[in-house]
Amino acid sequence: MLRRFILLHHTPQKDGKPLTMPFAPSASILFDTANEATEQNQIAFAKRYHELGLNAEYFWIDAGWFRGRWPNGVGDWFVRKDGFPNGLRPVSDAVKKMGMGFIVWFEPERANRGTWLDREHPDWMLKVTGTPKGARAGGPNRLLNLGNPEALRWLTDHISMMIENEGISLYRQDFNMDPLPYWRTADEHDRQGITEIRYIEGLYAFWDELLARHTGLLIDNCASGGRRIDLETISRSFPLTRTDDWDQRYSNGPARQCHTYGINLYTPCSGTTTDEPTIYDFRSALSAGIHPRWNPYTSDFPVEQAQGLIDEWKRLRPFFYGDFYPLTPYSIGDNVWIAYQFHREDLGQGMFLAFRRPNSVDLTSCLKLRGLLSSSRYELNFEDTGNKQTFTGEELATGIDVTIDQAPGSLLVTYREYPS
Q1: pTM, full prediction
Q2: What does the DSSP assignment read for 236-280?
């Protein structure tokens, strides 16, 4: 019920339906996020995807395209000329000719000490003494006060101008600091909370104005990876990357499976990364949106397998906009199975994903499907083998035994209500 409510009332809409989250690669792993990005190497990377038939929907330039680079240049939202002498427009024009939209990363609320915003408009900055949580080396961050009408007007006009001039079709807003000490410092003792209230009102007004000025614009709400999910932000945006933890100990298959299991209980539209075009890694990342961090230049890059995984995800994508049911207990352990189901009652279709983790000794698990009509018949398609079996909804709710021969390994089954 919560997912249906959020999809209907708190998800960006187009033509009365939730916006579709994209397949959006970036070249960040090859070019130090985007600190070493140039017009030439970004276009070349996008062209490589296009030539290999990987069918990207958006191309993404992440942090580092601006003067001062990442992270020291935050607060200097002007394109650095050493990599992009003609701005970002040549890149956006090139990728759009390849059929892709264009994503650009910003973090407009945070300004490092000494950057353009801090120098030119210190009166717009919220500051604290010392080094609070989230501060970068070299001194505390400044926080652009979105509750200040002049600051809000400048930010709205500046970002809007960049969206127009640079051909940005998906605006990615990050936020890598803890604002609470800045808000509290700005308030009198008997007015604690008022700066935060005005600030958040400004944030929502900023996004609303961008969406009003730029028809079809999408907003990606990152905030260090899915840390700014509330009903108002997800009404205007979606988190294309729900975690920023790239440590392989935690961002591997089991971690992504756990993220999918947990976040889908309350937020239907989220995306995550996939590091390798392998079946287990890619399926572990299956979400409404996918951000591959692949290197398509390697001599052994598995082109056909990557194409197949992308096509598989695009075929499955509608199921993420339905009901979600966990089929096993939640666990971070590497010796268990984890499984979950996405069901579209309106289509009479759905899928379930099961994972046998690396140290699980169990070849078989009994899964009880949810949300099905007990008297209806359903045709199950075991995607890896092409085997098809028919069960009643009652039989599927009672439980069916499924097998995964390898550990780690995955099982993908799609189903449809069988015509009576």
Answers
A1: 0.94
A2: H-B-S-S-----TTTSSHHHHHHHHHHHTTT-S--EEEE-S--HH
Q: Which residues pair with 219 in a beta bridge?
A: 171
Q: What is the pLDDT of residues 388-414, one digit of tens each?
A: 999 999 999 999 999 999 999 999 999
Reported as a single tens digit per residue, the pLDDT across 126-169 is 999 766 555 544 457 899 999 999 999 999 999 999 999 999 99
Q: Which two tokens stand for residue 374?
A: 């007990």
Cα angle 343, 345, 347; round to 5: 95
Domain count, the chain: 2
Taking residue 300's Cβ as centre, other Cβ atoms within 10 Å add up to 5
Q: What is the pLDDT of residue 20?
A: 94
In a shared domain, residues 38 and 69: yes
Is the CB of residue 353 less than 8 Å from the CB of residue 363? Answer: no
Cα–Cα distance, 66 to 347 (Å, whole number): 46
Angstrom CA distances, 352 to 23, 161, 263, 309, 358, stand at 21, 44, 16, 16, 20
Q: Domain of 9: which CATH number? A: 3.20.20.70
Query: 240-270 b/e with 16+ CB inside 10 Å = b?
Result: bbbbeeeeeeebbbbbbbbbbbebbeebbbb
Domain boundary among 295, 321, 347: 321
In one-letter notation, the amino acid at residue 307 is: Q
H helix or E strand, kind and range, residue 218: strand 218-221
